[in-house]
């Protein structure tokens, strides 16, 4: 790992944005550094190294005020410790830094590939809106309801709603719905074998095909979730969600700890909570308009963490791969995951 990767992780640690896995890695670093100093380096030599490193690091890392986590030592010490870590060949992390080819490929990430554009098609009174990777879009329906469509999604809805109901189909992907009240017409979202019915409410539906599940999460109001062609039915209250397994056809009802997590993607966050590999890949591909190819032997793992809108694909991949002991290269619009050497 290079200094830039360590800097990103330490900034997240300092701001309290690390997942438990990432925080454990940072804590282990400091333990290793402390042991190295005690066993191998005279005190004067350590002081001399750190004095020079502090000056160099301070030119790269502006001081950050901690938001959640209280650091055990001064922040410059963490930055200096990271630099010492890079030079400490006795610590195994340093043996895993990418070679020149990997670093050169990573620089290509800043050159965004040409994006496909959102596409809308009207046929026989129905509108189909397709949102490619790298885009999200908000649209207002004729009844006053608002739909925010996430990247990699496809939505079909009528140009004009009928008198009895307002029915739309989420054919693929994820959407957040803010439903205009209308007691005379139910608002129904159909997605992959289930139907979510609301009168006036806001909720999120996630139904990416590759994830083999549909998740309905409620922010406000009340919704009813029905399995099509079956008797299964659930009523959701705010801060509740139901997950439907498209393979086993089973439902699981859960609570949501933080209401703001529902639809956090609308504000540009990448949020993973015990997310399986397929969900992490979906998030990365949709955010950065890339394709992830897994060339490693690790394809069944879960990840906890969050990333802000301004974090680059390199920031995201550095942290995730560090946590999962993977390496990666980026070539054009493709990210290749590999085993660490």
Automatic annotation (TrEMBL):
It comes from the Bacteria. One of its GO terms (molecular function) is sigma factor antagonist activity. The chain crosses the membrane at residues 75-94. Residues 132-224 form the FecR protein domain. Residues 269-336 form the Protein FecR C-terminal domain. Keywords: Membrane, Transmembrane, Transmembrane helix. This is FecR family protein. It comes from Chitinophaga terrae.
């Amino acid at each position: 790992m290079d200094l830039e990767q360590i800097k990103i992780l330490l900034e997240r640690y300092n701001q309290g944005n690390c997942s438990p896995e990432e925080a454990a890695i940072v804590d282990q670093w400091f333990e290793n550094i402390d042991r190295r100093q005690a066993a191998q380096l005279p005190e004067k030599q350590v002081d001399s190294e750190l004095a020079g490193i502090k000056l160099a690091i301070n030119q790269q890392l502006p001081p950050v005020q901690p938001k959640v986590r209280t650091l055990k030592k001064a922040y410059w010490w963490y930055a200096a410790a990271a630099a010492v870590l890079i030079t400490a060949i006795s610590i195994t992390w340093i043996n895993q830094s990418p070679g020149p080819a990997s670093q050169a490929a990573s620089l290509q990430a800043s050159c965004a590939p040409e994006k496909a554009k959102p596409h809308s098609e009207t046929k026989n009174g129905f509108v189909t809106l397709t949102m490619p990777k790298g885009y999200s879009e908000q649209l207002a329906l004729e009844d006053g309801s608002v739909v925010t469509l996430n990247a990699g999604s496809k939505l079909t809805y009528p140009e004009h709603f009928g008198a009895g109901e307002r029915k739309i189909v989420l054919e693929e992907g994820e959407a957040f719905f803010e439903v205009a009240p209308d007691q005379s017409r139910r608002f129904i979202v159909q997605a992959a074998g289930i139907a979510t019915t609301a009168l006036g409410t806001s909720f999120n539906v996630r139904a990416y095909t590759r994830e083999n599940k549909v998740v309905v999460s409620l922010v406000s109001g009340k919704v009813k979730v029905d399995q099509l062609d079956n008797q299964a039915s659930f009523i959701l209250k705010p801060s509740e969600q139901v997950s439907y397994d498209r393979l086993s056809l089973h439902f699981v009802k859960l609570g949501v700890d933080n209401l703001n997590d529902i639809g956090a993607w609308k504000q540009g966050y990448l949020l993973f909570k015990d997310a399986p590999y397929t969900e992490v890949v979906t998030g990365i591909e949709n955010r950065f308009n890339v394709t992830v190819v897994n060339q490693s032997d690790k394809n069944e793992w879960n990840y906890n963490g969050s990333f802000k809108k301004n974090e680059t694909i390199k920031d995201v991949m550095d942290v995730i791969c560090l946590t999962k002991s993977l390496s990666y290269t980026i070539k054009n619009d493709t990210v290749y995951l590999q085993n660490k050497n």
